Amino acid sequence: MAESAPKRLKTAASSAAGTGPLIGTHNGHFHADEALAVHMLRQLPAYADARLVRTRDPKVLETCHTVVDVGGEYDAARNRYDHHQRGFTTTFPGRDTKLSSAGLVFLHFGRAIIAQRLSAQKQKQTQEGGEDKPAAPVAEDSPEVELLHRKLYEGFIEALDAHDNGISVYDPAAVAAAGLEKRFSEGGFTLGALVGRLNPNWNDPRPSDPAAAQQAEDERFLEASARIGDEFDRDLDYHAAAWLPARTVVQRAFERRREFDPEGRVLVLEGQSVPWKDHLYALEAAGVPNPVLYVLYQEKPEPGAKWRIQCVPESKDSFVSRKPLPEAWRGFRDEELDAIAGVPGCVFVHAAGFIGGNKTWEGVKEMALKALDA
């Protein structure tokens, strides 16, 4: 089983006389996938003080406890995680993208990393609550770990897998057939580009001593690993501390949606806004007669705070709303908008029609009901 991978390391790590297991990866130009793979491994206790060697020498790689992105072998039982060999087709369960070394490490060790982070978060909450008793650790096979394992793969790791394996977001033939052209290049904003910029330039001075040259290259790699690792850690922390707890809030609001509109087209988040899109789409995927069109929430979790009305987009990353706010309201504010909409207390409606605001709950609810009928 993939989740048992960290257990195989206990003996090797504890017998290393004060040093961790040796991780091997390739030298030369480095990429985002092996930079992240090394970082993820080092998040686990068994790899916390792991050593690293960057080489393509098979004899040196044989001495390594764990090898990523080099060696032409994928064998989890032997801690070999390469994806370049002919015939390699492994994917994350339920996904079609071929894995890179990052995906392989996350497949086998991701649950342990997530469970460890959730356990630390749980312990912190216990201590803040004034309890001295240690909190029970979160199990790797718990529902919340499984949910985050899939979410982090689809939202973070899969893009690296695709980038390293040369897989386009859209089918190039279909794009060409549709006559579509990119309006601009987003290449400089990818995680792959972030890591790539840390490689030496072709014309940078290089130490004449091979050992010194390799050391300089390795230092750049470690910087890249820490850089992309920080992004991964931040994404994990966000989903563990904010995204996951929001699931309960959205589910409760979803169950009550008919209290505000008989057809269930309005979702009200009481208290404050939370990350709602993923959870709403997941709840709707089970099958509902009418999709939610508007989400209402307070700007701040305090008495008297203003309210917002936000349109639900057609998909998470879409800028197209299922039902935009009325065209006649867009771009207007305050009293002028009050007169146009026929609703007191209006604050604004964005020119694109995807969001608006009102000073009161009664006002924002009236805006939602009028927008539904428009």
User: How would you sum up the global shape?
Assistant: elongated
The beta-strand count equals 10
The share of residues in helices is 40-55%
Give the C-alpha Rg. 25 Å
Residue fraction in strands? 5-15%
Q: Element order, helices and strands?
A: HEHEHEEEHHHHHEHEEHEEH
What is the first-to-last residue Cα distance?
54 Å
Helix tally?
11
Largest beta sheet: strand ordering: 2-1-3-5-4
Protein name: MYG1 protein
Organism: Purpureocillium lilacinum
Region (Disordered): 1-20, 120-142
InterPro entries: MYG1_exonuclease
Short summary:
The protein has 374 residues and is of the alpha/beta class. Helices cover 42% and strands 10% of the residues. InterPro entries: MYG1_exonuclease.
Give the topology, please:
Layout: H1 10-14, E1 22-25, H2 32-41, E2 51-54, H3 58-62, E3 66-68, E4 74-75, E5 80-81, H4 101-128, H5 143-164, H6 172-177, H7 191-196, H8 210-255, E6 266-269, H9 277-284, E7 294-298, E8 307-311, H10 334-341, E9 346-349, E10 355-358, H11 361-373
Parallel strand pairs: 1-2, 1-3, 3-5, 6-7
Antiparallel strand pairs: 4-5, 7-8, 8-10, 9-10
Helix pairs in contact: 2-4, 2-8, 4-5, 4-8, 5-8
Detailed description of the structure:
Residues 1-20, 120-142 are annotated as: Disordered. This protein has 374 residues and is α/β, with parallel strands linked by helices. The chain has 11 helices and 10 strands. A 5-stranded mixed β-sheet has the order 2-1-3-5-4. The model is unreliable at 6-18 (pLDDT under 50).
Key traits:
10% strand; five-stranded mixed beta sheet; 374 residues; elongated; 42% helix; alpha/beta; 10 strands
